[in-house]
Design a protein that fits this description.
This protein has two domains: 179 residues, Rossmann fold, CATH 3.40.50; 251 residues, 2-Layer Sandwich (Dihydrodipicolinate Reductase, domain 2). It has 14 helices and 18 strands. Helix 9 packs antiparallel against helix 13. The radius of gyration is 22 Å and the shape is globular. The protein starts with a helix and ends in a 12-residue tail after the last helix. The relative contact order is 0.15.
Length: 461
Amino acid sequence: MNRRHFGRSVASSALAFQFQVVPSRVFGANGRIALGGIGTGGKGATDIAESAKAGFEIVALTDVADVRRNPEMTGKISALRTTRDAHPDARFYTDYREMLYDLGDKVDAVTVSTPDHHHFHAAHAAMGAVKHVYCQKPLTHGIWEARTLSRLAREQGVKTQMGNQGQANDGSRRCAEILRAGAIGSIREVHVWTDRPTWPQGFDRSPEPQPVPAWLDWEQWIGPAPFVDYHPKIAPFNWRGWWDYGTGALGDIACHYLAMVYTATNPGPPLRVQAVAEGGTALSPPIASTVTYEFANGLKYIWYDGQKGARFLRDSWSLQKGEFNRPGNDILNGLDHTRYDTAVVGEAGILYFSYFRTSDWVVIPSGRLDGFDWPAPSSPRAREQNPYAEWQDAILGKIDQAESHFGHSGPFTEMVLLGVLAQRFPGEQLEWDDAQMSVKGRPELQNYIQRAYRKGWDLRE
């Protein structure tokens, strides 16, 4: 069985070898967990550094960019060198399937900090080999992928965490408890806004191809997604503005901004979703959009992203700024829209919240809290308000699971990505059949829910 075939086979089934795969060690109170970092720049650099700080032993690094072959790495990609230099004894790979094959039981857990289109395959292969997984948001690029990872994590009994790290803050968990206790009465609507995208979106054709740098494994970067010729305007960062590789502003930031209210309201799957969008194309997400989710209990989530009237400038491959897309003053009540990113509208008031300042929330009218019966804490708190420490505690058996384990973050990601699907068909109301994982009356959309993969990456091959 060669290395690349290993990745597909183990990902297809935990019984691929026809014997039980077990974790490499039983950890004691001072046990160190051997970790392989998949994706070592950008957010990957942070995930690996913070995991090491929490006490993980970094034994492997995987990245399509090999800094040892490019001593001139600067700017956004300079973190690749920082990560390699910080862990000189870690084995280096450009293919995570080869890393899992080579190291076998010498690695116990992985962080997945790749572009969105690799999240599923990397996490699936790791869990298939019974490795614990910390995966960046959104959990996956597609809806079927999110549901599949949730199921596999449950079947394999591994400890998981999605990287919407603000959810580990005490302020976020406390605010969810207060909302559940009725601080503003029954919740009717949730409004959430961001000025992202800050990267180019809305283009209608690819940039002209450029030669692939010698230090970059471009075939591995493309991986399971449709092929496109290399250009630095695509990677290392601007992939977020491509439907085939990223999920736009909604996929990028909603798993952060919506996490607290999703936990507080526990809405279940949406019944329907509809998007109003500007500037989107068949290749690229919209420059601005408003997405409305409707749930069975009458609750609505309204998401606002981008800048109205902005446009894509092809010569500079950038966005021209427009007007911040946000709720009206009937929701904002004159508050600074840059100070908060969430308004939770209840029958008796509105709670304003910020993902970046989770303890700095406010209720209008403030008198609503006079005599309020403050609830006792009911949600477990992350050790040191640290998502990596919380994941480590789950692996060591000190807690059952981290807050954003895949059983929770999988359905959450499905909800977010249903809005991403609506952005591709603006103006159309999509009726969601959660049990069948399909849009009612729209069988042609199934390819967006579970897309085909490039040859060599289909788990069924």
